[in-house]
Amino acid sequence: MIIDSQRITLDTKSEHVHGHGVGDHLYVHKHSIVHDLPAQVKVVAAIGFIFIVVLTPVHAVWAFALYLTMMFIVVGLAKLHFPLVLRRMLIEIPFVIFAVLMPFFGSAPRIEVLGISLSEAGLWAAFGILAKGTIGVITSVTLAATTRARDLLQGLEAIRVPAVLIQIATFMLRYSAVVTNDLARMKVARESRGFSATGIKHWKVLAHSAGALFIRSYERGERVHLAMLARGYNGTIIDLYKPIVVRRDWLIALVLPVLAIAIMMIAWVTL
Amino acid sequence: MHMPDGLINAQVSIGAAVIAAGAITVGLKKSKGTLDSQTAPLAGLVAVFIFAFQMMNFPVAAGTSGHLMGGALASILVGPYVAILVMTVVVSLQALVFADGGLSALGLNLLNMGIVSIVVSTILFAGLMKLLPKTRISIIGVSATVAFISVLASAGAFVFEYSLGGNATYNIASVLISVMSVHVLIGIGEAIITGLTIGAILATRADLVYGARKFLPAHNLLIKESVVA
Fold this sequence. Notes:
- The complex is a heterodimer of chains A (271) and B (229).
- Helices cover 65% and strands 3% of the residues of chain A.
- By secondary structure, chain A is mainly α.
- Chain A has 2 domains: 20-155 and 243-270, no CATH class; 162-230, no CATH class.
- In chain A, helix 2 (39-55) runs parallel beside helix 12 and helix 3 runs antiparallel to helix 12 (255-270).
- With 229 residues, chain B is mainly alpha-helical.
- Chain B has a single domain (10-213), classed as Arp2/3 complex 21 kDa subunit ARPC3, CATH 1.10.1760.
- Chain B has 8 helices and 2 strands, in the order ααββαααααα.
- In chain B, strands 1-2 form a two-stranded antiparallel ribbon.
- The mean pLDDT of chain B is 85.
- At the A-B interface, helix 2, helix 5, helix 7, helix 9 and helix 10 of A face helix 1, helix 2, helix 4 and helix 7 of B.
């Protein structure tokens, strides 16, 4: 592990930081209206939107087309590259297989498509899972790509998520790189002793690594805690930077779920 | 497996979220007594560990892969209440920061991978340890057994949710058979890795294993009254 001391700089002048912080695996730094919205506003809008999508009847195909268009507009406003969003959507594949197989096994009535007998109910259910799942993944990816992990946690704290959970999450993100490096060093150490994992017979060695990793992580946790106590930690973390939320932020973000509610209501009425 | 949006209907998703929120509240209350303000840094590092543990993927039939869950491991290592907080943070961050698992299915994923597996493994661990001799070998064996059953319990919870509000046309019996057969394989992997990991930790720092603390002899610091010349 090489530590590049040139890259460690103290940025005390501005809040505006370029590049990636801890836990920002999916974060894509851009300047856009979506990036600028406070994190909690985006989380509430995204969760609200997804629940409305899930509540929409599957037979209203046009409604899902509109939802998808809305998310494409959001992705466009966020200046994200579509290939990147598509690549992250691959996470959905096991469920795509689950959905695609459904029409072949579903019950009657069956309809003929290209000479293959398919279940009508199965087709609709498969469409529903694919449509809702896809819109859900695009929403999650857009949220993750436009929100820094640090901002997300501050935002969640502002909407009354218990402080202990926020602190655990903060430590998790803060130390994930440290623990990953620990893991990498252990891998190098194993391999320099001539080890390569080829099968079940090597699980014991890997489990020993996992055990050692736990002990290292736990002991690091103890050390960090003691160091924090020495600096006056009493269970609360004072944050000097508080994101400011104005009503305009809410108005912009809530356009998405409010439009979706209108679409869902029309879908139910016209069904 | 992290469920996506739309697989289970909104009513059941919200119900699961309410149950999960209740369990998290209990976890928050009870963990205060056991760890005080230590909860945050320690639980945070345990969360990183579980997160790394979950990244161990192994291929299961038909192009899908299963990953380890870590619920049983967490509950044996740090106790059920801190484990609930740890799993909550891990699963929530996976949904919010890594886009893994649907946002509307967060309650379901928290319930299946966190709460169900923690509750099942805690009860089972305590019950089995009552029956067996209090040795290192039986702690390891019980950990592995508990890990195996906790994975099946998570899968069972999914099948139950599916039967209540699944948006699919597969009948319950075939879902039960296919989900369970996949999770038997995942469970075996989880059992072996959990048992071996607990064994490795017991060998060096047995005092760190919450589940074993009661059973293993305490190594107290021995201060002799006089030094024999």
